[in-house]
Design brief:
By secondary structure, this protein is of the alpha+beta class. 24% of the residues lie in helices and 35% in strands. Strands 2-1-5-6-7-4-3 form a seven-stranded antiparallel sheet. Strand 3 and strand 4 form a beta hairpin. The chain is globular, with a radius of gyration of 16 Å.
């Protein structure tokens, strides 16, 4: 059951289609949501997309955004499950997040996301964008050489 080198964890996470973003409130209450994302170097971008979100109607906004503004420490986790447990793996990016609300600064990350997910042509990416500066890559695989680990 080998731990993955940082580069292997990064490649697996980059190839995943969805990941889970973990944030925490200032008093440590965890919050976990599935996200689409795009990787640029050691920065991961995810955005608030155009799908309906009930929290947009609340004055406080989305919890993940509020949490990041108050406590920027986050983790992003992607994993692979199969009935053949020899194929299992997970990859995690720990880092510091920021919320980008300036349309000019959101444009580049929005292009990366739209290039990775064609659905954004119809769903839209009104933002804001979350930028995660990754400070540590980690992972695990049940066997050497999981798909995408290179």
């Amino acid at each position: 059951m080998p731990r993955l080198a940082a580069g292997q964890a990064r490649r697996l996470l980059a190839a995943a289609r969805v990941a889970r973003l973990a944030t925490a409130s200032p008093d440590g209450v965890p919050h976990l949501v599935p996200v689409t994302f795009a990787l640029d170097g050691d920065t991961v971008y995810t955005a608030v997309d155009g799908k309906p979100k009930a929290a947009r109607r609340l004055p406080a906004g989305l919890r993940r955004l509020d949490n990041i503004r108050r406590n920027p420490a986050v983790a992003l986790l992607a994993d692979y499950y199969a009935e053949d447990w020899a194929a299992l793996w997970w990859a995690r990016a720990d880092g510091t997040a920021s919320v980008i609300e300036d349309p000019a600064l959101m444009a580049g990350p929005a292009r990366l996301l739209a290039g990775r997910y064609p659905q954004y042509a119809t769903v839209g990416l009104p933002g804001p964008v979350i930028a995660i500066r990754v400070t540590q890559w980690s992972g695990w695989a049940a066997a050497p050489g999981p798909p995408g680990a290179g």
